[in-house]
């Protein structure tokens, strides 16, 4: 049945809806204000909502029996204050909430029979002062606790038959002064006890009233056999007493009743009494010892609703058990504890000891107009704030939220508190207890647990998943007041919760990541749910460092689904969810990205998404920039008629500089950009290069920047150059759907360098020309300015992604083959060195040869070449931190290669032209000119022209061309010209000078061969392009060996004057030997 079916029937008194198999909805009875009887029995009602009977103020009888009700919301019957008869029998309820019947003061008959109730909570029937009949038969109740039926002064009939009751506690039925009948039949497991037989006899003797108890119980008859007898026939209770001797009760009187006086109650029938009365708007408590009869008589005078006392009214409750009246065991009142935290400085707080007392009493005074009792305690200084505890005792009908609001408003409007230094803006009222924030270090890492409300769990990120921790309550009883304002009790702090051990079991469970992503990919994504889904994906992406290849692929799939929606949804969704997700996904381990790229092109797709987002994002303002740790984007509106260029600047920040982005709509604005900011500047002429059909379609220019080239490395084919490294951020500019090429005014790109001692730098762009593997290319890009170790400014004639590449030229990457080549080169240099040293020794030792000018030149050239080989053997090794040694090796190698080549020039010049004092002048030139070149190279740029390349040191790119290649080419040209002239002169000489010409011919051949071999070994090895560096390394080894061997063979063996010197030396040695032999023979003959 649905609402308003009974509208306009306000005078209807009885309504029969039983036996219809129907269900009911809220507000169906809202217009039946005159209804007194309502039958809803024998239907199909399973759940009753709170407000369903809210508009039936005159209802007296309600029949809900024989339905399938398993839950009734608390508060359902709160408005039925006239209800006398309630039938809930024959349903499926398993428990009864203690608050369910608290506001039925006129209820006389209550049926709860035929349900599945297994336990009756103490306090369930409190405040049912007129209840006379209670039916609990046909349930699964197994135990009756003390207090279950207390405060039912008019109960006469109690049916507990057909349950599973095994026992009842002593005193369970003691405070039912008008009870006449208790039915306990068919509780087959119940053991015999003395309480009921003694209660029947006590009622008969003291009150002259008959109490009938029906039922059986089991008694032990011996031999482990039980005998079933009527309850009243149990006779083993001769020494049993209903009342406790020397009973201890708390005794006090007052508004807070804080004292802890304990009395021993004397007499034959001692009980503890709890008395609550109302004096104006304040509560008064009285706790004392009483006799059973007097306490029960006092209970008979209780008002209908003790939890809604009015001024002058009183309610009494009785109990047995030591100190049972210490608390409000009936539940007529609520006790709440709040904490006031203030970071204000109290006036004169440290000057007078009474300040604490004054502030606390002032707070109590401000609360004196509120209904209930209040006490304020100063707790001290905690967490940089003053802490006060406010304890409130109010009637049960007042909720915690209500009293919290009242206390808060009282403090907020108090001028007196302001005068004392408590500023309202600096006060915080807390109505919960908490576990204090804490940081813990475990084997899984360090975790910060935030302040958490007692009774709840907190979840924090933990590696691939989450960790959870429960905040449990302490054992303080907040209804107890402190005995002194100067003694801090545990309840004085709001941080009384106790942290349980954290649950870290899910920290590395990555299956949850995959499952979440799979669930999202199975959904359709549209404008309605894109914000929710993008938020979830953003949170998942925070764990990208734990992604598998499958996870990053699923995440990219989801981003691709959301990409077409960007232009039709709020910009905030893109800025706050989608872009942060992409930023986080870049943190995926590179080896995982490589795997995903090979299987699904994931890295390439991520770059496409990054490029497309600024093209799709709605642009409400003139420009937009966004910066995240791994990427930044920028967009600017353009109009072809007013376009003056554009500048996009970005800094990802570091310890010295903050992260920032900027866009200017003028190409000259790059002059305003700080040196620590990367930027790309587009020229004014950019629009001129657009085709006519493109000009009307272009409305924006987009930019993006990546902090490193990780995605490009992933995308780049494995065959790409392995000995190149990007040492700058990536910065890119695009005109959507338009390709910009061959600009007459170049694009200017300035990027900071991440390598402090780089070498061989080039400005590059990302080339994705069809038919080629994607790679970094220099085409159309040039270096404009280079600030060593800081930044490089490039000029390019097109738009794409730009960076600075450090190329490690002529030094092969390490590996098995490279290692073998290095070892072989050492052997080759050793052979060459040995040949050179033999040549020097031969010529130095030969008196006739060393006096000759060509021999002197040869000796100097061999010494220079030998030292070059020694430097290579000893100095060409990895240098990590020894920069000075590294630069020294590079400078010496540079010097001796040039001197070696200079001595070939000296030899060539000597062949062609004889000069006086030739050797002195040539030595100055051959040794001095390279020294000048090396000195200048060292002086310029503070020795930074000699740099570390890969594992060894050599000249930087520019210095290599200027200080090495240029002199080498000049010397070689000089050599070849001089040799050519020498040959021409030889051919014009007369025949009588042929002998001398033959000698010159040999010298020309020798120096020409040495020059060629030197160039093929040392010079070409250092200018080889990296694609063929392995081949040139082999050639270096071969030609370096040939160079040394050629010099030794040609100048020591092949040349005639060298052979003559060897023959002369041999003849002298032989002659000396023969002369020695003859002398020995003559001496022998004389002796003979």
UniProtKB/TrEMBL annotation:
<keyword id="KW-1015">Disulfide bond</keyword>
<dbReference type="InterPro" id="IPR003591">
    <property type="entry name" value="Leu-rich_rpt_typical-subtyp"/>
</dbReference>
<feature type="transmembrane region" description="Helical">
    <location>
        <begin position="1030"/>
        <end position="1054"/>
    </location>
</feature>
<feature type="transmembrane region" description="Helical">
    <location>
        <begin position="1004"/>
        <end position="1024"/>
    </location>
</feature>
<dbReference type="InterPro" id="IPR017981">
    <property type="entry name" value="GPCR_2-like_7TM"/>
</dbReference>
<dbReference type="InterPro" id="IPR000203">
    <property type="entry name" value="GPS"/>
</dbReference>
<dbReference type="InterPro" id="IPR017983">
    <property type="entry name" value="GPCR_2_secretin-like_CS"/>
</dbReference>
<feature type="transmembrane region" description="Helical">
    <location>
        <begin position="888"/>
        <end position="906"/>
    </location>
</feature>
<keyword id="KW-1133">Transmembrane helix</keyword>
<dbReference type="InterPro" id="IPR057244">
    <property type="entry name" value="GAIN_B"/>
</dbReference>
<dbReference type="GO" id="GO:0007166">
    <property type="term" value="P:cell surface receptor signaling pathway"/>
</dbReference>
<dbReference type="InterPro" id="IPR032675">
    <property type="entry name" value="LRR_dom_sf"/>
</dbReference>
<protein>
    <submittedName>
        <fullName>Adhesion G-protein coupled receptor G6-like</fullName>
    </submittedName>
</protein>
<feature type="transmembrane region" description="Helical">
    <location>
        <begin position="918"/>
        <end position="940"/>
    </location>
</feature>
<dbReference type="InterPro" id="IPR000832">
    <property type="entry name" value="GPCR_2_secretin-like"/>
</dbReference>
<dbReference type="Pfam" id="PF13855">
    <property type="entry name" value="LRR_8"/>
</dbReference>
<feature type="transmembrane region" description="Helical">
    <location>
        <begin position="825"/>
        <end position="845"/>
    </location>
</feature>
<keyword id="KW-0325">Glycoprotein</keyword>
<keyword id="KW-0812">Transmembrane</keyword>
<feature type="domain" description="GAIN-B">
    <location>
        <begin position="648"/>
        <end position="812"/>
    </location>
</feature>
<keyword id="KW-0433">Leucine-rich repeat</keyword>
<keyword id="KW-0472">Membrane</keyword>
<keyword id="KW-0732">Signal</keyword>
<dbReference type="InterPro" id="IPR001611">
    <property type="entry name" value="Leu-rich_rpt"/>
</dbReference>
<dbReference type="Pfam" id="PF01825">
    <property type="entry name" value="GPS"/>
</dbReference>
<dbReference type="Pfam" id="PF00002">
    <property type="entry name" value="7tm_2"/>
</dbReference>
<dbReference type="GO" id="GO:0004930">
    <property type="term" value="F:G protein-coupled receptor activity"/>
</dbReference>
<keyword id="KW-0677">Repeat</keyword>
<dbReference type="GO" id="GO:0016020">
    <property type="term" value="C:membrane"/>
</dbReference>
<feature type="transmembrane region" description="Helical">
    <location>
        <begin position="857"/>
        <end position="876"/>
    </location>
</feature>
<feature type="domain" description="G-protein coupled receptors family 2 profile 2">
    <location>
        <begin position="821"/>
        <end position="1055"/>
    </location>
</feature>
<feature type="transmembrane region" description="Helical">
    <location>
        <begin position="960"/>
        <end position="983"/>
    </location>
</feature>
<dbReference type="InterPro" id="IPR046338">
    <property type="entry name" value="GAIN_dom_sf"/>
</dbReference>
